[in-house]
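User: Okay, second chain of the day. Same drill as before: sequence in, structure tokens out.
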Amino acid sequence: MKKFFFIYCFTLFIISCNKDEVKVDEISGLFINEFLASNDACCADEKGEYDDWVELYNKTESSIDIGGMYFTDNIDDDDPYQIPDSYPSVTTIQAKGYLLIWCDDDQEQGPLHVSNKLKKSGESIILLSEENKTIIDSYEFGEQTTDVSMGRDPTNVKEWVFFDNPTPGIMNN
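Assistant: Same drill. Structure tokens below.
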């Protein structure tokens, strides 16, 4: 009887893991690529304001609409910002493309202006699935320098490096 119970529990565990793997595989092509947590004169938004930003990259061969996904700077956030899902022409990242999220707490400026501002002293950047349950990607950073971005090393995307010349919207260099 114990053997049967163990096999039953193990089977349920494997099935549950496989469901999660499929879900993660569907979104694994989207990740945080670069960010600037202290923007004084580097890169202006469409209103000419120097706001903090986070760049997302879609490494897949298909477009990904981030509308409906959640963005936060705190893993314990009970009310993360939901990116509006009614502007797919603005919130869709083309295949092999980039998209900037402005961290300025100016949602009236558009669907890519989120309610979170980044702290120069350090914090987290977290992108969550539409169900607000799965972390698509996250990064925890420390003290930042004004107008110096941090992003994935183009030769080793698992490593993060500083960029004296930020590259929002294009490949890191």
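The first helix runs from residue 2 to 27.

User: Thanks, on to the next one.
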